Amino acid sequence: xxxxxxxxxxxxxxxxxxxxxxxxxxxxxxxxxxxxxxxxxxxxxxxxxxxxxxxxxxxxxxxxxxxxxxxxxxxxxxxxxxxxxxxxxxxxxxxxxxxxxxxxxxxxxxxxxxxxxxxxxxxxxxxxxxxxxxxxxxxxxxxxxxxxxxxxxxxxxxxxxxxxxxxxxxxxxxxxxxxxxxxxxxxxxxxxxxxxxxxxxxxxxxxxxxxxxxxxxxxxxxxxxxxxxxxxxxxxxxxxxxxxxxxxxxxxxxxxxxxxxxxxxxxxxxxxxxxxxxx
Length: 279
Prior knowledge:
It is a single chain. The protein is α+β, with helices and mostly antiparallel strands. The chain folds into two domains: 78 residues, CATH 2.40.50.140; 188 residues, Glutaredoxin, CATH 3.40.30. Helix content is 30%, strand content 29%. The chain is built from seven helices and 14 strands. The strands form four sheets. The chain has a five-stranded antiparallel sheet. A five-stranded mixed sheet has the order 10-9-8-13-14. Helix 3 runs parallel beside helix 6. The N and C termini lie far apart (44 Å).
């Protein structure tokens, strides 16, 4: 994520340098006070609108310092918490071994268990597979800079309609939606927060996830998502995967768009409240 960002800044003529520190305060105008990792220096860095909404206060973070004219900004903010990074590395390594062992049979089929994961959501929280067990899930993949209307924008719009349909069903309070970026080098938690806000997403029900690029690449393989970088963008297929509260894949819909009412009914059935009427 950092390397790609530095290259972009060089192209547009901005200066950047990496920093790590603990966020101790954040003013209403977006200026964050950050204590250097060794405690020697205090920095004032401007956070984007999305990062202001992420729960970074009190957290150790890594970011790029971008100087543009007289303003110093922190961009591409990600967690640098040692324990979180250890947990992510552990899951990433295990998933890599599983991916290699499965070879060409890596894509998981209906009734197989979902793979493990350790990723950060749009609120900066580290979430893992275990956090979603007990919840029916609908999962898809997008990247926020996608400009092909029939792909990621259509996929996210369908997920928004699904969330709206579920909100009308009293028995669907337990259902969760997950969207994983396949461009983690660009899509930091703050970027995902801004993207989700743009669609009016319910942040408690619908998590947007980012993190280790290698882990996400392996997750894509397990869920049958393929990508190819071409002419400055990412060409990819799309699918919606429905997962039971026990963590088993139960249904897959190919394509970016899907019938939100049909998927809501499937999720409601998995939650054990299929007979519940909408308000």
